[in-house]
Design brief:
heterodimer, A: mainly alpha, two-stranded antiparallel ribbon, 11 helices, 34% helix, B: mainly alpha
Chain lengths: 289, 154
């Protein structure tokens, strides 16, 4: 995201815009328990235990108040804490590593203005065979590939922008791409959805598959969805996606929304029926109607 | 005297039944849930149709009022669709609805207001206002689902 966008962002600074699209508020605010803004504590259950998001307000002891901009950029792009510790990929640095430095600096500039909250961080609840420091470090060795984002020369500027928004800032693949037994994204199934998403929720297939993905959606459908959460059949998205739209994606500028849509509709079709059985009703999550 | 007493008692009970009417207690929870699903589906159908007209993909401007009136009418009944004990079985209603009933009620009231303002905009015929008010209405639907409905993924 270049500075050229700043002029197009109405009523919000560039840093706040990046903040919204990056979705920080959703994870780092415990909305379920009316937690303070960005003070962390939101729980995400997974097959590897329950992860609690940290306080990222500028509190000097419990938050990022003593961090430097370089510390922040290192955390986002390397998954490494100021003390040298390694983060679990529940913090999506796998995607954020692709972010441009300008965007990271703008994001940092916004975060340091957030209200300070003295909320103590909660330790993750992990099984005994996953000592935090070692397992995060090993996981990174096996799976982490450092950025930056590289544009494809065979694609348009709009497509590349959409790819950047989806793959880096918006980190859509972190939820929408299924993961293997060790929690790494399955590379040959990008955005194909999963029944075992973070927070123990199913996540829809948003590839362009006609029946199991969003292949029947038009550009207009998808743009409207990203703006309002309205599905083509008249229903409205709930849960985390609704938060992501309300807190972030609804603020996409027109060109950015169009770029994101163009990219998402270009994804290769992957047949993957993601459904969940609830009572006697099997619900398809990409329900068009 | 005895006749007057009897008439009085009969009148009292008739009055009571008339005031209270048939109650949810007369229906089993599964039926209540099924009814709610159908009403919500109807609401979604109208919203989906409206979205196509408002966004210019269907040229039925004369249908706008019908759908807007339906949405406003149904929105007013939403709060009644959630009697206590109706979140079992096949329901997507989160228990927080009843734990935070005041917030749920306020959210429903917000939806009613948004639907009425949209209906007003439709009747006034200002296209820009119709689009704007529909967006507000859409967001009120999304907000309620975000807070009070189990995500579609379970």
């Amino acid at each position: 995201m270049g500075n050229a966008l700043a002029a197009d962002v109405k009523g919000a600074g560039y840093g706040e815009y990046v903040f919204r699209i990056a979705g920080c508020a959703g994870c780092h605010t415990d909305v379920e328990n009316d937690g303070p803004f960005l003070a962390g504590g939101r729980a995400f259950k997974s097959d590897f235990g329950t992860f609690y998001t940290p306080n990222i307000t500028p509190h000097p002891e419990h938050g990022i108040g003593r961090w430097s901009e370089a510390d922040f950029i290192r955390a986002m792009t390397e998954g490494t804490a100021p003390d040298g510790g390694h983060y679990f990929p529940a913090f999506p640095y796998i995607s954020y590593t692709l972010m441009h430095t300008d965007d990271l600096r703008a994001l940092w500039g916004y975060l340091v203005t957030a209200p300070i909250v003295a909320k103590v961080n909660r330790a993750h609840q992990l099984p005994w065979y996953m000592p935090p420091k070692i397992s995060a470090w090993v996981w990174k060795i096996l799976y982490f590939q450092r950025g930056p984002f590289r544009e494809r020369t065979d694609r348009s500027a709009q497509w590349n922008r959409g790819a950047y928004l989806a793959g880096a800032v918006g980190h859509c693949g972190e939820c929408h791409t299924p993961r293997d037994l060790l929690g790494a994204r399955v590379q040959h199934l990008p955005y194909a959805g999963t029944i075992k998403g973070l927070g123990d929720r199913s996540v829809p297939n948003i590839s362009s598959h006609q029946t199991t993905g969003i292949g029947r959606w038009t550009r207009d459908d998808l743009e409207y969805f990203l703006e309002t959460g309205a599905l083509p059949g008249g229903d409205f998205s709930g849960g985390i996606m609704a938060e992501i739209i309300e807190n972030g994606l609804q603020y996409l500028t027109g060109p950015d929304r169009q770029a994101l849509v163009a990219y998402l509709l270009s994804l290769k079709p992957i047949k993957n029926e993601v459904s969940t059985r609830k009572g006697e009703v099997t619900r398809r999550l990409n329900e068009f109607e | 005297m005895v006749t007057k007493k009897i008439i009085g008692r009969v009148f009292f009970w008739l009055l009571l039944m008339g005031l209270t009417g048939p109650t949810w207690a007369d229906s089993d929870p599964e039926t209540v849930i099924r009814y709610r699903h159908n009403v919500m589906k109807a609401l979604g159908g109208h919203m989906g149709a409206l979205a196509l007209i408002v966004r210019g993909r269907m040229d039925f401007p004369n249908h706008l009022t019908h759908h807007a009136e339906a949405v406003a009418a149904i929105s007013r009944t939403v709060i009644e669709l959630f009697p206590a004990g109706s979140n079992s079985g096949n329901s997507s209603a989160r228990s927080v609805i009843w734990q935070k009933w005041d917030k749920f009620r306020d959210t429903c009231a917000g939806g009613v207001r948004a639907s009425e303002e949209f209906l007003s905009a439709v009747k006034n015929g200002d296209k820009a206002d119709v689009k704007k008010k529909f967006r507000v209405l859409s967001k009120s639907c999304a907000r309620c689902h975000r807070k009070f409905r189990v995500p579609r993924g379970g």
